[in-house]
């Protein structure tokens, strides 16, 4: 199906779609009503009045398309309506007008609904910041008024509005949305902090290095815009048949007129040739596919995205927040035995005491420990006398016992002796020490784990014909290699910037025989998502830049819907093609009959409507669930 012409028009014209459908329906019904009431002479005028507005909008669309070098099957519909009005076959014109306006509205409705549900690209970025003035007072100012060298206050939970340097006190930030690094980072004074990252620790001061327009996040936004402008649109389903079908139709109609000397016979050929299966059945199948995908928690932004997804043969995947959870989770508890055997703390008790103390902290690591304790069914106690050092740890009492939780250096200050050596750790884990009663009780190891359904997703993608799987991450190469071990990946690369990811997608598009899809979730994935033939944003983490740049957005947790969407897209396209082949084949037989003089224009229009019904009924099969697919809301393969 060709690209929806409505988006080439102004919004005011595009909004006329439902009114054109209504006008065509009322005009067709009104003409028949006049005939039945004995006023048959007035009926042609009503049918002509209903046809003319639809034809006028169609002519504007065709002119706009031709200026872009886009030749579509709309020309056949325009010739049919024009010829019907000129030759007085207004009933045939009204039937074609209703068919055409209905198909246009279906496509416009589907894509307009997807646009309305999307958030703006820049919704993540703050519009203002808290700036110190020359006397140390703090005032909220617009981002445009912030200049290098000024000092900002970044509160806990704030997204950094500009690139800057941490001053005075250390900062704890979550950089996963920008760099892909899953473990929170502690930035000492003097270190640079990137815009778009989130302050998850105590408030800190930031010295502005660059204005907002030149920040890291603004650069990523520019990459998204450039990728969207540079990417050539994919050919739509009907466009691949447009020129050949148009040429055959015009030649056959001309030959019928030339041989018979009757222009009405040529009109009959044009009416029968009006590509109803393409204009109606294809959007019905694709809209049905969009509806199926939505029931599985997948928002696909229109028929074009569904078509592109159906032809995917290569997948580029992000790691952090996509194949992994994107947040720290407890993976191991290393217990340290002391001299007093009966007083030693076991793994569950160490976790319970640490999580109890961490109830007083808003740190993401504290959240991870509390979640892990809940999963093990451990009962937490209320902490008392708690003191927290931002970015390092906290100490207090739990059930009267002194407990300290935090970095090894921080907890070491609460130990009676030296910190024992910790062996067997790697770069993919973060260590949280737990001291109880002045002794090191345990070290809790946290890491960003592979999602349980990640391997199942890759297996299903391969099963559905995605022959090349590439992992592209901004996280460290050693962590990426560890995650990739055992997965059916053709290539795994780490330490990638947003520009690097964009380059990988472009490289894969050059080498791929089918479409390339990119699956990611962070702001740093947005340029690659925009560049890919079909970008799929994992929406659970809520990075609006990636959701806006992508063609497909997962609205539920888990990865199984990605494969479900691929199955739905391929089945919907297959059903649409069946409707095309059967409909065009029947239309071809009707054209030959009309050229031979066996069908009048009105008869041809009615025959075409019978073909429409058959094609649409077949297209509606796309509403039924695909065989073997997971039920909505489940995570098959997890």
TrEMBL record:
Subcellular compartments: Cell membrane; Membrane
InterPro entries: ATPase_P-typ_cyto_dom_N, ATPase_P-typ_P_site, ATPase_P-typ_TM_dom_sf, ATPase_P-typ_transduc_dom_A_sf, ATPase_P-type_domA, Cation_Transport_ATPase_IB, HAD-like_sf, HAD_sf
Enzyme Commission designation: 7.2.2.12
Sequence intervals crossing the membrane: 20-38, 44-64, 241-260, 266-290, 580-600
Classification via Pfam families: E1-E2_ATPase, Hydrolase
Annotated P-type ATPase A domain residues: 125-225
Reaction it catalyzes: Zn(2+)(in) + ATP + H2O = Zn(2+)(out) + ADP + phosphate + H(+)
Keyword terms: ATP-binding, Cell membrane, Membrane, Metal-binding, Nucleotide-binding, Transmembrane, Transmembrane helix
Chief site of localization: membrane
Family per record: Belongs to the cation transport ATPase (P-type) (TC 3.A.3) family. Type IB subfamily.
Name of protein: P-type Zn(2+) transporter
